Inverse folding.
């Protein structure tokens, strides 16, 4: 509304921008789609009609915020005010970011229209509601029995159920959205927080439709050996543990409910909450103007708020890049490969009579690789990354103990053994680092003269030894130290922001 352009034009523009940024950040999807697509719209309408036929949707006259100045009913996120539960002054009409509770816009204190800042009035309008309270017991059983759920998701959901579920609105008086399919619901659209979570299913349908295997989507949603996993922030917990499961239960079909909802706590930015309106934070397009994507990926994963809120600071960011990436990981890889370049004609040395320490290090590297895999399976990504960097700590300690730069003069075979062991750790790093810093992993595979698409390598390749005589390429540094001060980094961000803020 502020920009004076149609909603679809705006969403087309942002969708293309986001797709481009995902590529630059090396984030890939089998099907990155939109809830605006025809497959999604039809699926949502069909599923909601099924719920309606099952008598779990009813009509009721509702009191809703109406802005006289804008001459329209206000969608939930077009209303802000003070949370009636925790008194947070910037609560949205559908949810409070501070306490996480789902809200109704009419319950806000001191509400205002986010478009014109005027105070809305209350008008009546007939709407369709989903009878969620009828699924309270089934949802309680589902959450109690779902042992994969992290504590924050389980506790939040159980507390929410204890307070008592209320019917959830399904329709809105918006012009932009999926047309409501119910009899008499002309000119109503489906509330976004009802239809958006159904996008997980419609995206699967769309994907297999594109492959010409239209029935295969059911393997994900009805086969009891299949599991669905969701990575979200804690403010989205109720939509995934309560609303989505309730909608699927209401179809009276045997859909798979979410197997795990891996919900992180909040990431703060230098002790402040990220804020679009107040320009607090680093936008992902700005971030890439400052440093490579892998620097950000590593730093953010290393402080991932898995069990409590964590804080991003420029000091932490520089420490992660300079100490972990450059001085530990990069240093170990570079001195191993450059030593092989210089003293073994770029060929993996032939080992002979590895001693107990050599064997112990190789065994330890294998165990660390298995630990990384287990942490990923358990969705402990921070611990997995820490274990991966632990491989380079192991390699550095090993080289410092073996001192091949000395033994090359006195006992060349001992030096050859040391470099043989060290390069196996380098190869393990090339495979295990791919989920975290994929471009670095591909560059490392190139240095090792191996197929460079790390994501196509089997995990078992990490512990398959490089054969003696295998030729590697000339070593090159994988990282560059950040030499700027914290103050200089903040200035760089301000300059980058001034170039990207829409006029």
């Amino acid at each position: 509304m502020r920009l004076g352009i149609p909603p679809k034009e705006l969403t087309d523009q942002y969708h293309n921008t986001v797709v481009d940024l995902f590529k630059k950040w090396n984030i890939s999807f089998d099907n990155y789609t939109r809830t605006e697509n025809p497959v999604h719209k039809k699926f949502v309408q069909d599923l909601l009609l099924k719920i309606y036929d099952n008598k779990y949707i009813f009509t009721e006259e509702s009191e809703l915020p109406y802005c006289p100045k804008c001459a329209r009913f206000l969608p939930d996120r077009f209303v802000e005010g003070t949370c009636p539960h925790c008194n947070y002054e910037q609560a949205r009409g559908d949810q409070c970011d501070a306490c996480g509770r789902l809200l109704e816009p009419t319950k806000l204190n001191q509400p205002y229209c986010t478009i014109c800042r005027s105070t809305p009035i209350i008008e009546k309008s007939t709407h369709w509601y989903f009878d969620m309270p009828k699924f309270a017991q089934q949802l309680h059983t589902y959450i109690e029995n779902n042992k994969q759920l992290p504590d924050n998701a389980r506790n939040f959901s159980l507390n929410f159920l204890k307070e008592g579920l209320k019917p959830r609105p399904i329709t809105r008086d918006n012009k932009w959205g999926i047309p409501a399919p119910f009899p008499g619901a002309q000119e109503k659209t489906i509330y976004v927080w009802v239809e958006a979570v159904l996008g997980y299913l419609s995206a699967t349908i769309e994907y297999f439709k594109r492959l010409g295997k239209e029935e295969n989507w059911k393997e994900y949603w009805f086969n009891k050996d299949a599991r669905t996993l969701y990575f979200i922030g804690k403010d989205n917990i109720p939509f995934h543990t309560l609303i989505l499961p309730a909608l699927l239960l209401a179809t009276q079909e045997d859909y798979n409910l979410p197997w795990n909802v891996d919900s992180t706590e909040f990431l703060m930015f230098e002790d402040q909450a990220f804020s679009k309106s107040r320009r607090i934070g680093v936008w992902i397009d700005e971030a890439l103007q400052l440093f490579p994507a892998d620097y950000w990926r590593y730093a953010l994963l290393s402080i991932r708020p898995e069990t409590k809120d964590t804080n991003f600071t420029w000091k932490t960011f520089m420490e992660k890049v300079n100490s972990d990436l450059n001085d530990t990981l990069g240093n170990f890889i570079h001195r191993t490969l450059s030593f092989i370049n210089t003293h073994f004609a770029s060929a993996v040395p032939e080992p002979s009579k590895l001693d107990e320490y050599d064997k112990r290090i190789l065994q330890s590297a294998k165990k660390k690789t298995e630990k990384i895999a287990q942490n990923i399976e358990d969705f402990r990504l921070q611990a997995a990354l820490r274990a991966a960097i632990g491989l380079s700590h192991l390699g550095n300690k090993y080289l410092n103990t073996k001192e091949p730069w000395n033994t090359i003069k006195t006992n060349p075979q001992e030096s050859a053994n040391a470099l043989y062991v060290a390069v196996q750790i380098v190869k393990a790093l090339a495979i295990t680092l791919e989920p975290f810093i994929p471009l670095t992993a591909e560059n490392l595979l190139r240095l090792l003269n191996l197929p460079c698409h790390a994501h196509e390598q089997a995990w078992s390749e990490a512990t398959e030894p490089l054969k003696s005589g295998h030729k590697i390429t000339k070593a090159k540094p994988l990282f560059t130290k950040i030499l700027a001060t914290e103050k200089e980094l903040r200035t760089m961000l301000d300059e980058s922001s001034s170039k990207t803020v829409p006029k």
The domain at 7-55+125-267 is CATH 3.40.50.620 (Rossmann fold). The chain has a mean pLDDT of 93.
